[in-house]
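Contributing new records

If you add data, match the layout below exactly. Sequence lines come first and carry their own label; structure lines follow with theirs. Keep one chain per record. Anything else will be rejected by the validation script.
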Amino acid sequence: MSGTEALKRAAAEGHALPGFVAYNLETVQGITAAAETAGRPALIQAGSSPFRHAGRDALMRLALDAAATSSAPLGVHLDHSHDLDEITACLRAGYTSVMVDGSHLPFAENVALTREAARRAHEHGAWIEAELGAIAGDEDVSTDADARGAAMTDPEQAAEFTAATGVDALAVAVGNVHGFTSEPVRLDLDRLAAIHRAVPVPLVLHGASGLPEEELRGALARGVAKVNVNAELRRAYLTAVRDRLPDALPGSDAVAVWAAGRDAVTDAALRVIRRLSPAS
């Protein structure tokens, strides 16, 4: 699934592409199976953080092979990269999109990093996502993050940023957090609407695991065309592995445990895809 057509169609029609973070073979397989069952597009997000676990080349190959051989329209996306060399390596390998994350930098430095990353992505025929603002929480561990005090995306600055960098999608901070929270997340939908009016590109919502339905619907109605889900799949995988272990341990049946995790990821991803798809 190359090019921005699916992303722009989602923005125009008020639904969203799901971006699912993949850590290993079973999560790649689960995401792929969910997209095939639904017959809907999705992004396998094999990115910087999972590379530390699986190794970059190994995980890249898994994701790219799955996308190339699947009957579903699948893109392969580099999530949350701070490193231009890593971005270039993924583009050369065949990634269809990348995210450069300079949100931790001062504004001018974020612009400079993002502009160069965008140049490289477009040279390779890929589209690029960037981030402006601070999204609370850990990308890999649900730690009951709280968005209070986090720097939210400013609409005027977002307009300046997109114009200066040439990005194709913008990840925003509007009260969303990485991971599950003890209290329901409430998005600043007025701010999101103002950003949508200010920028010409589709918006991206990170931290959608556990997001209440009314908040999700409100985001989709205000320009969000890509939604990232990670913790929801991690929890499904780990819960299935935990539940299968007692029966599997006596016979050292590792395959049964891996299969249970994979199937749980498929079910969780399928639920998300259906939530984000156009109403039938």
